[in-house]
Amino acid sequence: MLHKWEGIVLKAKAYGESNKIVTLMTREAGKVACMARGAKKPTSRLAGVTQPFMHGSFLVQRTSGMGTLQQGEHFNSMRTLQTDIIATAYGSYIVELVDRLVEEGREEPYAFEVLLQALTAIDEGYDPEAIALFVDWKMLPYTGVQPILNCCAACSAVEGEFAFSFTQGGFLCHKCYHLDPYIIRLTPTQLKLIRMFYNVPIDQVGKLQLKPQTKSFIKKIVTTIYEEQTGIRLKSRAFIEQLERTPLLYREKKEE
Ligand SMILES: [Zn+2]
Fold first, then answer.
1. Scanning 113, 131, 139, 147, which has the fewest C-beta atoms within 10 Å of its C-beta?
2. Beta partners for residue 72, in sequence order
3. DSSP string, 104-155
4. Ligand 1 centroid distance, CA of 188 (Å)
5. If you measure from the C-alpha of residue 225 to the centroid of ligand 1, how many angstroms do you get, rounded to a whole number?
6. What are the tens digits of pLDDT across the range 158-174?
7. How many CB atoms lie within 10 A of CB 77?
């Protein structure tokens, strides 16, 4: 059967001398791996469209097992993501996260939409670090962790001061602080921001101008959830941390 899917290339792995195995996140069929014959050759018509981050339309022949990519046509080649090292680093992190969390074999329109919006936003010049943070929060339900952020996780109170508690799985109000000796206290702004990352659509989050320390604070919370509660540690996270430790490169880019 021949399928026409809208998809985004999550990864492309060399296979044999001239082929690639391409993993697509598609709108219609979820995550799909397919063989792209000859795509490793620069002259192949599949060479361009099988680059990571590529958003396009893909014709895949599949009966059972792995399908074969017949044709691809790009809608958006995500040029910034392909050429800007900071954008590439965060883009790689996002596609790796989606690839890790989403399983093959079923439609995942929510994950597709989060991925498409995030990559498009980075490509259009939104702060890649804020966008990656947004994806971290948005993809949390796929790990089985659903933090309680609309009220106190212990007593359901909505008034008062709040802190973040990893053991209670979300916000804790000041009356319940005693339940967790390791709470992270939050200012009202931090509280609002975390809720926003979790609940608000990306175009609103993308426009926010966030201070580096605000981002790193929110990132610390979500990274801890991923690493300690889900055991997920991504290779591309290490690359981002390496970039962050190369301050010259990182700063020049950020101050443009
Ligand atoms: Zn409480």
1. 113
2. 58
3. BTS--HHHHHHHHHHHHHHHTT--HHHHHHHHHHHHGGGGT---B-SS-TTT
4. 16
5. 20
6. 999 999 999 999 999 99
7. 16
CB 123 within 8 A of CB 76: yes
Q: Which residues surround ligand 1, an ion (CB under 5 A)?
A: 152, 154-155, 157, 173, 175-176
> Measured in angstroms, how far is the CA atom of residue 147 from the centroid of ligand 1?
14
As given in the structure block, the two tokens for residue 33 are 């791996």
Q: pTM to 2 decimals?
A: 0.89
| Residues composing the chain | 256
**114 has pLDDT over 90:** yes
185 CA → ligand 1 middle, Å: 13
With the C-alpha atoms ordered 170, 150, 207, 120, is the resulting torsion angle positive or negative? positive
What distance in angstroms lies between residue 197's CA and the mean position of ligand 1's atoms?
A: 22
User: The tokens of 96 are what?
Assistant: 């790796």
